[in-house]
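Quick one: structure tokens for this chain, please?
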Amino acid sequence: MEADRIIITQASLEDADFIIKFGTETFQDAYGHAHSKEDMNAYLLSAFNKEKTLDELCDNNIVYLIASIEGKPIAYSKLSTSKAHRSLKECSSIELERIYVAKEMTGKKIGSTLMKKSLDIARERNYKTLWLAVWEFNPLAVAFYERFGFKSFGSDIFTLGKTKRNLILMKKELKVNILNLTQNFFHCLHQLPITTANY
């Protein structure tokens, strides 16, 4: 099975060039037809530049996961807590900001494997909600997320150049990992300074 050959690893600085090139090509293929060349180029330079990508790879609030087959990277996802949607600010949430799969790999369980690993990461870090935004006219993507238990909780606007697009906001509630919470609690206790007091 194709899924058995997929290796998921957390990205390092050495993966920056792949993230930039693959992200640029995937976004261009998906949305280039709907925007002017000038607007698209400006967005791509802003979203997928080297400096920004390297900074994100060093940011503890951001996780990139790379999917590879036989050593060749063919997909990636990006999880981020750098911003929380206004309606989720009262809960512990993490955003699935991107999940990009090579077009020729569609239907080979790559996206599903990446999604499962992304959910694992969110649970391991004890987030209560994983959320995302998807273009309203992308029914295949919406159906994919629904298969994993995501439900719509609102809408938002994405602006690219002169064009505004409606996004569907979706979220999945996650079960808290009690074991991780306990381990984190005792880890924090060990980090506390030992003090003595004279009375």
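The beta strands are 6-10, 62-69, 72-80, 93-101, 129-135, 151-160, 163-173.
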